[in-house]
């Protein structure tokens, strides 16, 4: 189960402003013209922004309310899109760098007033943890919290869980490909509570590592999280997961366990906490170092099929699917739905490795998928 990285689904154009006195160059995304100034901005992250907007809009439709906290907003494009497309009632756009203030203000002014009794947005400049903690202390809870962080900074997980409403959404990020690849096990242990070793499906491990960290922190507070979708993109790399936060500890603890991979036979399977003393592989290999164990990690489904169906239906209504750039988003959402089957095991074996073990030529991926679907 792995969400493949796809090319950005959103066409970008650079537009010269109408004002002849302005020297700024605007960028357009989904019809919104905005300025990036000197902020950190990636065109390639458009797919992640599309997914976040779709999820936020679904929340607004089902709850008839949407208050968003964009904890690390950069230039403010996500905040702008939550206001304009997801119809957010209010957005708090925070970025620790005060020098970005004028850029963020200019972009959000395109979505309405940021002042007065009926203001729809506010801009703050503070550390994300401080903002989240202050919201919790004021009991100023948010329906949707987007944290587009860098590296494996997980220090905000607990404060975010405290600031989000029950049944609300957390949109988390990691860009630490070294830890997901098993190259910094002590670092992943400190950040997410998981000792990760090198495995063939490191992209999927990165998503499970991030969800597992959230599961651990939520359990401490008496909550549990449910993955709605998980997305990996090669640029960065970037791992993004959308989680629904609910009261009570997770009813199925078997989804938080260890993952074992046998380099001799290629088999992967979950190991529960009470079976750690009896780790072994069904191939009975006695080759030293052939069994690799990582964890604890999230071992349950990475996506929710019903929620993804709503996202796809909404994307179709908005004209975000079909030919051209929309085809990539449609393909991604359909792929996520295929992966959401709880009966599917985690991990994968590369097709070339399967052919090598069977000592045959590699068939085309399309042929293999067709046969699997048929059976």
TrEMBL record:
Keywords: Methyltransferase, RNA-binding, S-adenosyl-L-methionine, Transferase, tRNA processing, tRNA-binding. Residues 1-21 are annotated as: Disordered. Residues 12-21 have a biased composition (Polar residues). This is tRNA (Guanine(26)-N(2))-dimethyltransferase. It comes from Olea europaea subsp. europaea. InterPro entries: SAM-dependent_MTases_sf, Trm1. GO terms for biological process: tRNA N2-guanine methylation. Pfam families: TRM. The keyword Transcription does not apply. GO terms for molecular function: tRNA (guanine) methyltransferase activity; tRNA binding. One of its GO terms (cellular component) is nucleus. Belongs to the class I-like SAM-binding methyltransferase superfamily. Trm1 family. It comes from the Eukaryota. PROSITE patterns: SAM_MT_TRM1. The keyword tRNA-binding applies.
């Amino acid at each position: 189960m792995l969400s493949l990285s796809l090319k950005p689904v959103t066409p970008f154009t650079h537009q010269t402003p109408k004002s002849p006195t302005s020297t700024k160059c605007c960028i357009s995304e989904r019809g919104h013209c905005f300025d990036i100034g000197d902020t950190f901005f990636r065109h390639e992250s458009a797919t992640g922004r599309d997914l976040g907007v779709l999820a936020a809009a679904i929340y607004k439709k089902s709850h008839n309310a949407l208050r968003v906290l964009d904890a690390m907003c950069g230039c403010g494009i996500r905040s702008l899109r939550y206001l304009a497309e997801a119809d957010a009632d209010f957005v708090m756009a925070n970025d620790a760098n005060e020098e970005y203030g004028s850029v963020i203000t200019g972009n959000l002014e395109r979505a309405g007033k940021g002042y007065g009794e009926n203001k729809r947005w506010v801009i703050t400049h503070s550390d994300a943890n401080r903002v989240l903690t202050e919201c919790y202390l004021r009991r100023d809870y948010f329906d949707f919290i987007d944290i587009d962080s860098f590296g494996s900074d997980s220090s905000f997980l607990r404060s975010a869980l405290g600031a989000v409403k029950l049944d609300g959404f957390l949109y988390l990020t990691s860009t630490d490909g070294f830890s997901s690849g098993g190259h910094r096990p002590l670092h992943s242990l400190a950040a997410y509570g998981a000792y990760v070793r090198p495995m063939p499906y490191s992209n999927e491990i990165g998503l499970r590592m991030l969800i597992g960290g959230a599961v651990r922190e939520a359990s401490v507070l008496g909550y549990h999280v449910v993955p709605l979708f998980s997305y990996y993109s090669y640029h960065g790399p970037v791992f993004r997961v959308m989680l629904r936060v609910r009261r009570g500890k997770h009813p199925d603890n078997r989804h938080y366990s260890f993952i074992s991979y046998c380099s001799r036979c290629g088999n992967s399977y979950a190991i529960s906490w009470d079976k750690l003393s009896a780790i072994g592989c069904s191939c009975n290999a006695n080759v030293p170092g052939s069994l690799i164990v990582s964890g604890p990690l999230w071992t349950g489904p990475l996506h929710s099929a019903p929620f993804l169906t709503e996202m796809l239906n909404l994307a179709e209504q908005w004209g975000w699917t079909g030919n051209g750039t929309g085809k990539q988003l449609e393909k991604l959402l359909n792929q996520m739905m295929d992966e959401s089957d709880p009966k599917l095991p985690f991990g994968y074996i590369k097709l070339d490795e399967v052919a090598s073990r069977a000592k045959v030529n590699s068939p085309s991926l399309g042929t293999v998928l067709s046969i699997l679907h048929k059976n």
